[in-house]
Structure formats: C-alpha cells, structure tokens
Design a protein that fits this description.
- By secondary structure, the chain is of the alpha+beta class.
- It has two domains: 135 residues, Creatinase/prolidase N-terminal domain (Creatine Amidinohydrolase, Chain A, domain 1), CATH 3.40.350; 219 residues, Creatine Amidinohydrolase (Alpha-Beta Complex).
- Helices cover 38% and strands 20% of the residues.
- The protein is built from eleven helices and 18 strands.
- The strands form five sheets. A six-stranded mixed β-sheet has the order 4-3-2-1-5-6, with helices on both faces. Strands 13-14-17-18 form a four-stranded antiparallel β-sheet.
- Helix 1 packs across helix 6 and helix 9 runs antiparallel to helix 10.
- The longest helix has 24 residues.
- It is elongated.
Length: 373
Amino acid sequence: MICHPYLERIARCTALMKAAGLDVLLLTKPANMAYLTGDGRLCAYAMITKEGKVALGVPSTDVEDVKRLTCFDHLTGFEDEVGMIHSIAHHFKHFEIQEGSVGLEYTFLTHSMMGMLTHPHGKPEKVAAKDCTPVMSALRIAKEGGEIERVRAAASIAVAGMAAAVKALKPGLTESQIAAEAEYAMRQAGADEFWRTYVCSGPRTNIAHGLPTQRRIDKGDLVMMDIHPIVNGYSADICRTVCLGKPTVEQQAAYDLYLKAQQAAIAHVKTGVGMVELDEILHGIIRDGGHGDHLFGPTMHGVGIEFEEAPLPPGHAFFHGEKAPPPLATNVVIAVGNCGLYTGPWGVRVEDTVVVKPDGPQILTDYVRKLEI
C-alpha cells in the first residue's frame, strides 16, 4: 500500500469537507480518485469520510492490482453493478453514516450514474446528496512539487510529439495520419496515454477543436495540431498552427497577431493575477488588431491530472459547474491559447502549458512558434 503523499491530501480534503458541510464523499471520477488514493479507474468508487477514512470499491478482478497502487483503509471487490450498489451500502454502514450529507461529482455524473449512486439499496434514505465539485477543484488547483515535475515530463513529451507531427507533414497525408505520427512519437518518448488529439487542415482550421479526419492535406494548407499526452497520470497541452508552404499575407498577419496576444497574456502570468485579467489581455490585443469578432470561447484553462480542469474563466467555469476562480496561486498550471482566431475560411492558434510563479510564468512547452515551415 502506497500512502505518500495521499495522507496529506486526504487531511486537506477533510478540512474542505467540514467547511462545506459534507460528511462523506462518494467519488467515481478517475482523476479525483487518483488524486486522493493513487489510482483512478472506471467501474470503481472511493468513499472518504470527514474523519479521513478511505474505502474503495473495485471490480473483484482488480483487487490485487489496487492493493499495490493505492492508499486505503478498506477495500471491497464486486462482481457487477448490483454488487457495486451493495458494497456502497456496506461502506455507509461500516462508517456508521446513516444521516447527513454525501458529496457527489455533479459535473461528472450522468443522470443514470447519479441514479445508481443514490439508489435506495445503496445510499441511506436520510443521507442527502450534495455537489462536491468545488471541494475537489479547490483541493487540486495548486500543484505540489511532484505534480509539477509530472506535468513537466508530460510537456517534454508533448514537444516531442509536436516535433514529430510537424516533421511528418507533407501533401497527400491525411489529418489522421499526422495525428498518428504525434501519438506514436509520444508513446515512444514515454507517454502512457493521451487525451483526444486534434488535427485539422485547410478550411477545417476554422473549427474550434477539430478532430482528425481522412481529409488529405494540400500544399498551402494551414494545419492546426493540438496534443495532450498523459505521463504518470499527468497531462500537458500544446497547440501549434503551421502552413504547408507559403502562407498568405492575411494568414501571416493573423498568426502574428494571435501569437502576440498569446505571448502577452503569458507574460502577465504570476501569483495573484486573475484569469479574467489574463483573458482580457489576450482578447484586447486581438480586438485592437481588428479581429475582435473572430475570437471564440475561453482562451485558457487549468492543466493537471486532466488536460482541462480548474481554474477556468468565469463563463467557462459556469458551463462546467465550477465556481469562478480566485486569483491564481503559486504552482497553478494553466494552458494559454485554448481557442483561436477564426476568420471563416481558416483559423490560427498557438497554445502553451505554463506554471504560475511569484515572479512570472514558467513555460513548459517551449516548442518553436512559427507559421511557415
């Protein structure tokens, strides 16, 4: 059983639970489970009491594996969904929680999953369900030193993946083939997995987040690539736009404007700055450059166990069920450049993963930013 640094995290978690009036958490989101116990897998759950006791329920096939990887007080295996409900009921009884409140991850659970976790054969009738999303976001938002190093490792592999994708670009290849080059390079460099890879070309660069297709890339096309490797449980986020040939004057000007805005926002990253302030810096430069109507959506988000997590700008936070973020703390990790400049016929975007420090930004994805290759 591995318990460092999870015992300290659980202690911080219980303090937040008490402040939020929660008696127990019932977690099924892999990222949250991994943060507090060391392992997050599907078809499993973790219960954390306000006294700091941890119970895990996992498929019976996974019990021995979980024993080696996680920090827990009680571990139960189950055979199916009915068994999962009964094991939840067993842990409520074991912890003597028959009334009070249980925190559930409202922003993660589907309606049917919510029904399962609140099933009368599992949750005691007098235990009320409440949203624990703000508790988990506050807990995970500032990264520990070890987490920063894991993000840094993921960023290094993201750079290797981007370099491989750019090198592979040539007319006739499909967007999917370019995605494959990036993913293969990341696997070879040490990535365990990756979140969705985005590759779009030509007119498809006008799409906010273009999933790769069988479209063949032509000479003169813009190509937008956004990759997110997972290394030892942590992610990084990088996006680059390049032109397979000579960009037009309009494309180069738009790219230069977006890069200027993105780099200006990054330059202002430091402890105590607000996400709204950073967002407005980026938006303001784009607006002053005559493309105010061509910038879509939030331009930054947090990075960690997930490639998109808290902190999020207020509007985006509301959409994700999060609270508006406080001023950025030291060792918060954010990606700057989440959405691009979309003109209609084409778009451009540059995105980097950055650590918030008291004296300024620490850029982790420092791959060349150049439109013409």
